[in-house]
Amino acid sequence: MSLKLVSYNICPYVLRVAAALNFKQIKYDIEFIDIENKPEWFAQASPLEKVPILIVDGTKVLFESNVILDYIDSLSLPSLQPQDPFERGLARAKQEFAGEVPTNIHNIIYAQTKEKFQENIADFNWYLDKLSPWIQHKFLLGDEPRLADFSFASIFTSLNVIQPFLKEDHLQKYPNIKQYALNLLALESVQRAIVPQYSELLTQTIKTVNGYIIRQE
Amino acid sequence: MFRPNVKHTLVTFQICPFCIRVKAIMHLKQIDIEVKYIEIANKPDWFLEKSPLGKVPILIIGDNSKIIFNLKVVLFESNVIMEYLDELVKPQLLPGNPVEKAVDRARCEFANEVIKVFHQFAFACEQDKFFKSRDLLFKYFEKIETWLQDGKYMNGNDLSLVDISYSPVFLSLSLILPTFNCEFQKKLPKTYEYCKAIVNLPCVQKAKRADYEQLVLNGIRQCNTFICLTFFLELGKDQLVDGYNLRNSEFQKQFKISFNAASKNRISLNRW
């Protein structure tokens, strides 16, 4: 079976998939595209013209990172999802929740007015507030990472890069989330999923956008 | 009727499209679930506290007679709730094969996008936003057309979770299509037939309130959206409800449209 992950370099949704593939020790090829200049074949293959897509055996195209994560999980044992249907549903719901946060971080970077910026910062704090009660152990469901943990990893890789531009440390109020972030970033499978120039590329994007985050006093 | 061991309560809005899908599965699989309606404009504090994304639907599992619910027993996100209910009662509507399952689940997620763009289309007050969402929506229907094969439903003649996921899309489509002069049936014949098949499913009919269409139309009218103008132009009226007159320049200024553009819109859906 051949797997090709189509990506662009700083995409948070790709990172979660790459990290899970690495953790499950599943071999895959990765192809980077220029998101500002999408190739024609990509626009045809990806219904929403978004990354990641996973091409299975050169023919079947899977899209949506949560769907790809579950598919990857089915490729080898042990499964990283709970067995109980309710617990599995809850884990999936948390994955979907994690999917909203990179969009929020994107909006923080791109906000041009103080009002929009503060609105998105308030949303970010809302997410942290909702996340906190879920973090009771080293990872979401215990001492070992499960599928939903990889969904959260990219939140903290981007937060590390944007933190110098933010006035406050939003994790200070949540030492459990702070530790969770460290636990996730310490995973080798997450580290290997981060492209070598990730920090520089994201910083460059932030500066190029020149949003309120840069201009605030 | 399947009665879960622990009480299940679905919290929803009256005309929420994401909630309709969940109710459709409930009815299809005959699962005993209490439905609790809350107001979109007036979400109760207990709901905001317990719904991690502040959205409906949520599925509360456990006794709901208490005001405070333990966060642990709340499922959220309609796709997640649908799959949970699908697993609760066999046979499952998702395939067993992992690749086919992933393809179906991706198509269910795609339905989320279609619902969102449909909402933008229906509630756009400015003409450029209206035309942009109209074109994107048609592009999505073109994609669905390529997925449809022979057979009544997405995967043939057996119902799947994908079909239920698209039920709110086609309820909305069947509401607006008769009003417009467009070539949808000619251009996307499979999607047109698929729309009829989905809307006529008994579980979908039971999932919506009897006054669903009227509530949706009232909602659109109250927002005085661009599509609303088109409804009334089609009907040959230039007087909207609440005394708004289409020829009134203040009204036109408010919605950044010209009357001429609005009349041209009468044929705009011919591009469909």
Describe this structure in words.
The complex is a heterodimer of chains A (217) and B (272). Chain A has 217 residues and is of the alpha+beta class. Chain A has helices at residues 12-23, 40-45, 65-75, 85-110, 114-131, 147-162, 175-185, 188-193, 198-209, 212-215; strands spanning 3-7, 29-32, 53-56, 60-63. In chain A, 56% of the residues lie in helices and 8% in strands. In chain A, strand 1 (3-7), helix 1 and strand 2 (29-32) form a beta-alpha-beta unit. The radius of gyration of chain A is 17 Å and the shape is globular. With 272 residues, chain B is mainly alpha-helical. In chain B, 53% of the residues lie in helices and 6% in strands. Chain B has a 4-stranded mixed sheet. The longest helix of chain B is centred in the middle third of the chain and has 26 residues, at 98-123. The model of chain B is unreliable at 64-71, 234-247 and 254-272 (pLDDT under 50). At the A-B interface, strand 4, helix 3 and helix 4 of A face helix 3 and helix 4 of B.
Rg for CA atoms of chain B: 20 Å
Helicity range of the residues of chain A? 55-70%
Low-pLDDT sequence parts of chain B? 64-71, 234-247, 254-272
**SSE ordering of chain B:** EHEHEEHHHHHHHHHHHH
Any chance you could write out the topology, listing elements then pairs?
The complex is a heterodimer of chains A (217) and B (272).
Chain A: E1 3-7, H1 12-23, E2 29-32, H2 40-45, E3 53-56, E4 60-63, H3 65-75, H4 85-110, H5 114-131, H6 147-162, H7 175-185, H8 188-193, H9 198-209, H10 212-215
Parallel strand pairs in A: 1-2
Antiparallel strand pairs in A: 1-3, 3-4
Helix pairs in contact in A: 1-3, 1-6, 4-5, 4-6
Chain B: E1 8-12, H1 17-29, E2 34-37, H2 45-50, E3 58-61, E4 74-76, H3 78-88, H4 98-123, H5 127-147, H6 161-165, H7 167-176, H8 184-187, H9 189-199, H10 202-207, H11 212-222, H12 226-234, H13 249-254, H14 259-264
Parallel strand pairs in B: 1-2
Antiparallel strand pairs in B: 1-3, 3-4
Helix pairs in contact in B: 1-3, 4-5, 7-9
